[in-house]
Amino acid sequence: MKYVDEYRRAEDVKKVSQAIAKITTKPWTIMEICGGQTHAIVKFGLDELLPDNITLVHGPGCPVCVTPLEAIDRAVMIASREDVIFCSFGDMVRVPGSEKDLLTVKSQGGDLRIVYSPLDAVEIARQNPNKKVVFFAIGFETTAPANAMAVYQAKLKGINNFSVLVSHVLVPPAMEIILSSPANKVQGFLAAGHVCTVMGYTQYEAIAEKFKAPIVVTGFEPLDILEGIYMCVQQLEAGKHEVVNEYSRVVKREGNLPAQDVIKKVFKIVNQKWRGIGEIPDSGLALADEYSSFDADKVFNLEHINVEEPAECISGLVLQGVKKPDECSEFGKKCSPEHPLGAPMVSTEGACAAYYRYRSHEIVG
User: Is residue 160 part of a domain?
Assistant: First the structure.
């Protein structure tokens, strides 16, 4: 398939990995932001093709992983109600809350429906006027336009039995928190290509300048990632710190302006709690006042719910690139995809799930 096979050719991957080794003279630590990139790195063993003095660490770019525990608990409470049809993408249904997950709610009789678009949930609300239909709106800037459009369409069509439980997060503030931390090891970033497809990458330019850290917008195939690493190492070796675009076949500097417009229309920027990390200023999206009647937290009066994270899970350190999944004492033992302690083990983009699936044979036993 074009744009898949051509970015996975073994001979090209070998050439780029050799080119990286040739230009690397110092130790460098690079963070890939996106969980999709993490899975590609671990699945294809890309980190094992790099010289020993390049370390890849995994960032907080798994939307399921950073959705705070109280958001899961709120979802469980809403989905358990007899008057509710709760709609979600499939990757959220097994994420553990304080006591149970959404799949358990379904097994106990809750009307939980897996949808492929938030607009599907709007249509379900239209077809079921006697039910309250709630969509679990999570994710980074990538999913924000579709979630915003669902709310926009519901208001336009007068579908007032529809609401969204919002837990949206933004990438740039998280990058600043990582680079500001006294424990930070990251010297350069691979930025998430799909986020930049929507938002462009002008926001990253100030971060690169402020922290003197190169940022490379990168795709998700092996060649994309290795070429992104090559471009990042080039800058690190030369003492440069610019934002460059490896993923130019998809990403434009200004991003998708109509998508940005609908986000600005429906959402406002707020402080946001990240699971395992804590609250980051101006790092989330909430419904603008004009659309507050579609806010499930307000509809069901759940804004007061706050939950502490379990101390035994080190997912916060994993998401900040301080620890790797196999450095957790519970990895593959008390914590597995069947019985996860934290979201990174159950999410399809979680770093812990990637290590368990592709490398657990090296660690467990």
Answer: yes
| CB under 8 A, 24+ apart: contacts of 256-265 | 256/145, 256/197, 256/198, 256/199, 256/200, 259/145, 259/198, 260/145, 260/198, 260/199, 262/145, 262/148, 262/149, 262/152, 263/141, 263/144, 263/145, 263/148, 265/148, 265/152
pLDDT digits (tens, 9 = 90+) for 64-115: 888 888 999 999 999 999 999 999 999 899 888 888 999 999 999 999 999 9
- Collect all residues with Cβ–Cβ distance below 8 Å to 288 and sequence separation of at least 6: 265, 266, 267, 268
* Residues comprising the chain, all counted: 365
Residue 89 sits in a domain whose CATH number is 3.40.50.11740
The answer to whether residues 294 and 164 touch, using CB atoms and an 8 Å cutoff, is yes
Is residue 40 in some structural domain? no
Identify the helix (H) or strand (E) that includes residue 13. Answer: helix 10-23
Q: Where do we find the tokens 């800058």?
A: 235
Q: Is residue 165 domain-resident?
A: yes
pLDDT for position 365: 39
Query: Residues 276, 307: contact at Cβ < 8 Å?
Result: no
Q: Residue 364 above 70 pLDDT?
A: no
- Whether residue 212 is contained in a domain is answered as no
The total domain count for the chain is 1
Q: Which backbone phi and psi does 90 adopt, to 5 degrees?
A: -65, -25
Domain containing 135: what range? 65-170+256-299
